[in-house]
Amino acid sequence: MLRDVTFGQYYPADSFVHKMDARIKLVLTLLYMVGIFFVQSFVVFGFVTVLLLAVVLVSRVPLRSVLRSVRGIVVLLVFTAILNLFFTKGADASEQPLWAWSPWNGFTIEIYVNGLKSAAKIFLRLVYLVVGSCILTLTTTPVDLTHAVESLLKPLRVVKFPVHEFALIMSLTLSFIPSLIEETDRIIRAQKARGADFDTGGLVKRAKAFVPILIPLLVGGFRRAEELANAMNSRCYEGATKRTCMRVMKLSWRDLVASLVMVIFFTGVFLLYGMSSKWGGIVWLYY
Q1: pTM for the model
Q2: Distance CA 287, CA 278 (A)
């Protein structure tokens, strides 16, 4: 299960996406995350799927590595879809439920067509959000992401915002994710060798079985943080000092092409959203 977490992990490759400027990739990913919430049509969801597959193909990242990120949030996906399925009523009061069940008097569980559509859309949105963010981290090193965040937030220095420190914290957080996952997996295997059981029993029993893992994981995390702090202090690191980058970020034709494609695509998405909101939605466009 822990091996399915790909967020924060970098996949080295010589591709179009890998060579893009990290600032452009970060901005386009944020635009993508905002735009996905404006998608109201399953037809447009299909276009988004084609777009994601094209990006994965161009980035030369194995599709299996991208899909592994979804497996880590299966429980969240199912739980959210169930909530939308059972708690979303019909589009109007005259709509009849597709299925209804009354376990006792005064309480009825109903499923409407609108609930099915809502559950499917929220499921797709969550999946596409995770996939989009993982493509960013799989094709961009934590160091490049740090420089990108610091460069984009430079205007905030006018109001005395600690831009460099914020970017450094984000970089350290991303770099610690793979090591913590590896440490957790090592602790679980050590506990299993001593007879611990994590795979049988109910949800409460499994949760209690993971409690002994938390203490050594926290101790290991604090130890790593202390070692990193000592290493930075021994090198006389000061965050407030004005610094220069060893590798200067420069925009290229790849960034222009990718930006045009994403802007054109999501401009169409926003226009379709406005049309469906204004006219109530054409059948093939809205549904």
Answers
A1: 0.73
A2: 15
* CA atoms of 94 and 102, how far apart (whole Å): 20
Reduced to 3 states (helix: H, G, I; strand: E, B; else coil), residue 112 is: coil
- What would the pLDDT profile of 162-179 be if each residue is shown by its tens digit? 887 888 887 787 777 777
Q: Give the chain's length.
A: 287
Q: Is the pLDDT of residue 205 over 80?
A: no
DSSP string, 59-109: HT--HHHHHHHHHTTHHHHHHHHHHHHHH---SSTTPPPSEEEEEETTEEE
Question: For 53, how many CA atoms within 13 A lie in the half-sphere containing its CB?
Answer: 6
In contact, 150 and 167? CB cutoff 8 Å: yes
The predicted-structure confidence for 35-79, as pLDDT tens digits, reads as follows 888 887 888 888 888 889 999 999 998 888 888 877 777 778 888
Written as one letter, the residue type at 169 is: I
Residue written as token pair 């169930």: 82
Beta strands in the chain (DSSP E): 99-104, 107-111
How far is Cα 263 from Cα 258, in angstroms, rounded to an integer?
A: 9
Element (H, E) at 217: helix 211-234
Q: Is the separation of the CB atoms in 251 and 20 below 8 Å?
A: no
Query: Whole-angstrom Cα distance, residue 95 to residue 26?
Result: 43
Q: State the DSSP code for 98.
A: S
Amino acid at 11: Y
- Pairwise CA distance, residues 165 & 260, whole Å: 32
